[in-house]
Design brief:
β2 and β3 form a beta hairpin. The radius of gyration is 20 Å and the shape is elongated. By secondary structure, the chain is mainly α. The chain has a single domain, classed as Serine Threonine Protein Phosphatase 5, Tetratricopeptide repeat (Alpha Horseshoe). A two-stranded antiparallel ribbon has the order 1-4. A two-stranded antiparallel ribbon has the order 2-3.
Length: 235
């Protein structure tokens, strides 16, 4: 169980003037979030509500829990196939049977978030990050939820943590760029992260290219041509 699948948060960049709304497509990617790292003294069961836990919530763990990697792969397939109810049950059982691993908590939280259960999602993302502080996926999602709650300082800290762990994490660069572009009003920082996102993703997102050009008009000194002229270099 060395990976968790991230159905990356759907990020929307909206001009504050209301001129346009440009949604970014959700991206599916696999990001490492191994269960190693600091562990709580007594890992708790995954956070669920009564309807979601059902009769199995109080059932004792099975003596033979099966192959965790095989079970995790099966749960990931359910998630990728959008069988959310079955995937949620599978990740819940994995987290209950193997509470030392961060991945099942992360994926359970993703499903809870997509099922409009933000408080449960936050609890399990935080639990995943405690189990494995190097879980960049969990930090990225915590940043997005904090941004939605208008806690921009917390969002920035979470996105920054994700990038400290995984500097080439394209989704976190994009999310941090949007945060600085529209919420903290730091266009130079936003421009830097948009450019890094484009570099990491192959530069094929035309809409992000448009956002970069828009910000370059606001921050002329940040344009590649201006930077080259300042150093005497040839573009």
């Amino acid at each position: 169980m060395n990976h968790c699948v991230e159905m990356a948060p759907l990020t929307q960049r909206q001009a504050m003037s209301g001129r346009w709304l440009l949604p970014l497509l959700a991206v599916a990617l696999v990001a490492g979030c191994s269960g190693t790292g600091r562990k709580p003294a007594a890992p708790a069961a995954p956070t669920v509500n009564a309807a979601e836990a059902g009769a199995d919530a109080s059932a004792p763990a099975r003596a033979d829990k099966g192959d965790p990697d095989a079970r995790f792969a099966a749960a990931l397939k359910l998630l990728k196939d959008r069988q959310l109810k079955e995937a949620r049950e599978a990740f819940f059982e994995l987290a209950k049977d193997f509470p030392q691993h961060s991945g099942p908590y992360t994926d359970l939280a993703i499903i809870q978030y997509q099922s409009k259960q933000p408080s449960l999602a936050v609890a399990n993302f935080e639990k995943a990050a405690r189990l494995n502080p190097e879980n960049a996926v969990a930090w990225n999602w915590l940043g997005t939820i904090a941004r939605e709650n208008r806690d921009y300082a917390k969002a920035e800290a979470a996105y920054t943590k994700a990038l400290e762990i995984k500097p080439d994490y394209a989704a976190a660069h994009l999310n941090l760029a949007v945060l600085h572009d529209l919420y903290t009003r730091r266009p130079a920082d936003a421009l830097s992260h948009y450019r890094e996102y484009q570099r990491l993703s192959g530069g094929d997102r035309l809409i992000v290219t448009a956002w970069i050009k828009e910000l370059e008009a606001q921050v002329p000194s940040a344009t590649p041509a201006a930077a080259s002229a300042a150093t005497g270099a040839t573009p």
